[in-house]
Write a structure and sequence with these properties.
150 residues; single chain
Length: 150
């Protein structure tokens, strides 16, 4: 099985759309962490909780950088992993690793759901965290930008 990483970048966060995406495509996903703290791996701890939604609200409300990781134990799921990156400017990047056979379906859903053409696919690059990283990645031959013109 070949996997693809499908990314969507948004200039501002819409928690409702994030939740809709997870309900629609990643309903059996759970956060990889059982406990959340900010800063992650740093001191002093400014906020901690074991509830993902509370941590998301804290990060968004206080304009902090944070990366959430999600996994599934459902081996039959075409979705393998997901990453939600929140940047301190309240932009966000959502990554879903999928079986390449459903790549186009995910691309179209992300474009429609988030009303953006900033959806792209990578096969072998380091994790992306910002719009600048996207632009750098797009100059590489192993990255494809998926837009309405294609």
């Amino acid at each position: 099985m070949i996997s693809s990483d499908v990314y969507v970048f948004l200039n501002s966060i819409d928690i409702g759309k994030i939740n809709s995406f997870f309900r629609t495509y990643l309903s059996d996903f759970m956060p990889s962490d059982d406990f959340f703290e900010y800063p992650k791996y740093g001191t002093p701890i400014m906020y901690e909780t074991d509830i993902y939604e509370e941590m998301l609200a804290y990060i968004v409300g206080n304009k902090k950088d944070y990366t959430f990781y999600f996994d599934t134990e459902n081996s039959k799921s075409p979705y393998k992993q997901s990453v939600l990156r929140i940047n301190k400017d309240n932009s966000m990047l959502l990554r879903v690793s999928v079986d390449s056979s459903i790549e186009q379906k995910i691309i179209e859903f992300l474009k429609k759901e988030f009303n953006t053409d900033d959806v792209f696919v990578t096969y072998n690059i380091p994790p992306i965290t910002s719009k600048e990283d996207i632009l750098k990645a797009l100059s590489r031959p192993d990255t494809a930008l998926m837009s309405n013109e294609e």
